[in-house]
Task: structure prediction
Amino acid sequence: MSARRSLIAGNWKMYKTSAEAADFARRFVPLVSGLADRDIMIAPPFTALETVAGILKGTNVALGAQNLFWEAEGAFTAEISPKMLAAAGCRYVIIGHSERRQFFGETNDTVNRRVRAALPVGLIPVMCVGETEQEREAGQTFSVLDKQVRKGLKNLVANELGTLVIAYEPVWAIGTGKTATKEQAQTAHQFIRSLVANLFPAGVAAAMRILYGGSVKPENISELMAMDDIDGALVGGASLNPESFAKIVCY
Ligand code: PGA
Result:
């Protein structure tokens, strides 16, 4: 358990129409309304953002998006700008999820461009990092994380990092039911925090929230949250049902 304010975030991926998202939000909000000591976020698909924003307004549940493009506007067919997300009511944006890296050509360089574009409009980036199973087995976990964090945060200065969140999501644990053990997660989180401490002036790393993601469920959230460097969770599958996500949020 850390002194940092925890953040439990739901990544809905490509699930839920706008009507389904609205139904979730109406059922979920009353289940978590009493919780003032933690931050809660849900990230629906783009098409549901404005509808869900209307339902979350004035509640303790914040809205997030799952991606953004770094340009402010222009001839970039199908892309969504930081300003559009902020205007739609988003407070957070997930950046560099492993599915973006795996299927849509996201690189550490494009992750960095997105992070740098999110901050000036007041969006809180949730920058995702994590090794594949093959990389873990080859003993490359730390070198992969080192590269992802170092490059993702390139050209940022300490006072820009006040809100930024890192999500450690081992690729082999995403959607597989195979959660990292609490010790494996803690070791990776501690590594990331000490790396940030080496890259930025004192205080930044100690204040930075590092979330764990990968098969988080109501059954394993408490033991993960008990670890020193785990400050929250990024939840995929188990965030799609209001009751199960509320159980996780209420860990
Ligand atoms: P999962 O997904 O909880 O379904 O494993 C986590 C994520 O991809 O953020």
Remarks:
- The CA atoms of residues 115 and 125 lie 6 Å apart.
- The chain has one domain: 6-249.
